[in-house]
């Protein structure tokens, strides 16, 4: 067996299952889960219909590069969304089976394990980054988020000898779980470090279309263009239809950026067997070409967050995020409970599931930046999320009275 597999930690939801082992929640409450970031809004009918109408394509093997039509559609969306100059669909865009598998695969493409490689990850983070690092023969290096910096890591504090070993840097903007969006100044700082040390930047942007302000979140390719970085050197952006269009089961996304890296990535994927079904490609074209359903989806999240955030602020240290569909809350405003004990008691007493923050972070540089926090995914319909929020408020107030 591959010994690198032994370095992998259990996934957060396996840890959650173990945390809840032996608990029977109060049957007076129906179960509500805010634990998993799986979109629950209905899939638009036109996407479903396009998928059903395209099943004739199942008789053919798809190419790893995807169809010319899909790549051109994705390039067009990037140009409209981010104000980019015309992209070359043949060399700068590649469809993938969801951003998750592509985020993992990129590390296997760009890491040279013979050079004592590091993969720099935000902390807290999406666990795929860590697994990708280990299985590529590298070690993760965690950059802790700082609440005082809108949960951005202080990249300036990372020693030069660490940067010299970094071959890949994962970013998530808007962030999971914090919802923070990188500023142009932060992008400029990271591009300068990439130029100095030669590492690749993987910009995970799968939450980019769920936001609460009038201005859409800045993307990595957009930042590079605004800073005059022609050709997007050492930058690969990842996006997905899962959250944007409520189609997580389609497993459809794309990568775009540096053509030299994309050429090697396509070679890797050709051997890996990562071609997208023709039916999924057709449905993806329909989804990327339509913005009306995206605006409707965003409006639902705005309505939920505008009601639920003030409710939870009564009992938790929490603020409206820049974007995304998570609330990243500290439980210590009224209680002395740890994040794991808070989640465990909330489940037992009120049948609401939240994810302990320490499950999506690692002990690094003397702290676990997820400790004392919980992640709540407001992915269900509004009434269900409001009911969960009411229970959380009642539960937390009870804990405060027990102090």
TrEMBL record:
Signal peptide range: none
Catalytic activity, EC: 2.6.1.17
Protein name as annotated: Succinyldiaminopimelate transaminase
Keyword Ligase assigned: no
NCBIfam families per record: DapC_gpp
GO MF annotations in UniProt: succinyldiaminopimelate transaminase activity
Gene: dapC
Cofactor: pyridoxal 5'-phosphate
């Amino acid at each position: 067996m591959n010994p690198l597999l032994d370095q992998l930690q259990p996934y957060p939801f396996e840890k959650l299952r173990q945390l809840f082992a032996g608990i029977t929640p109060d049957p007076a409450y129906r179960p509500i889960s805010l634990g998993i970031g799986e979109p629950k809004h209905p899939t638009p009918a036109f996407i479903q219909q396009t998928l059903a109408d395209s099943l004739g394509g199942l008789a053919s093997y798809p190419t790893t590069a995807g169809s010319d039509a899909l790549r051109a559609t994705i390039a067009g969306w990037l140009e409209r969304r981010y104000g980019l100059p015309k992209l070359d669909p043949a060399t700068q865009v590649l469809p993938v089976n969801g951003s998750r598998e592509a985020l993992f695969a990129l590390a296997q493409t760009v890491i040279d394990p013979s050079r004592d490689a590091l993969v720099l990850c935000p902390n807290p983070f999406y666990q795929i980054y860590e697994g990708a690092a280990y299985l590529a023969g590298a070690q993760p290096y965690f950059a802790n988020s700082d609440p005082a910096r809108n949960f951005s890591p202080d990249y300036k504090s990372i020693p030069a000898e660490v940067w010299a070993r970094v071959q890949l840097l994962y970013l998530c903007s808007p962030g999971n779980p914090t919802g923070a969006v990188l500023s142009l100044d932060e992008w400029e700082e990271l591009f300068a470090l990439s130029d100095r040390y030669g590492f690749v930047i993987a910009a995970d942007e799968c939450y980019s279309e769920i936001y609460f302000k009038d201005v859409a979140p800045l993307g990595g390719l957009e930042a590079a263009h605004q800073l005059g970085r022609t050709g997007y050197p050492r930058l690969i952006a990842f996006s997905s239809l899962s959250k944007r269009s409520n189609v997580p089961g389609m497993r459809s996304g794309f990568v775009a950026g540096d053509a030299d890296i994309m050429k090697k990535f396509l070679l890797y994927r050709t051997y890996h067997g990562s071609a997208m079904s023709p039916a999924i490609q057709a449905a993806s074209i329909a989804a990327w070409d339509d913005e009306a359903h995206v605006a409707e989806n965003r409006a639902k999240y705005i309505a939920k967050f505008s009601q639920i955030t003030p409710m939870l602020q009564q009992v938790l240290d929490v603020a409206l995020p820049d974007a995304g569909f998570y609330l990243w809350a500290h439980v210590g405003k009224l209680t002395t409970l740890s994040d794991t004990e808070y989640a465990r008691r909330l489940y037992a007493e009120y049948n609401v599931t939240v994810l302990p923050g320490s499950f999506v972070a690692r002990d690094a540089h003397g702290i676990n930046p997820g400790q004392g926090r919980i992640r709540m995914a407001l992915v269900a319909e509004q009434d269900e999320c409001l009911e969960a929020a009411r229970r959380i408020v009642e539960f937390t107030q009870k804990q405060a009275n027990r102090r």
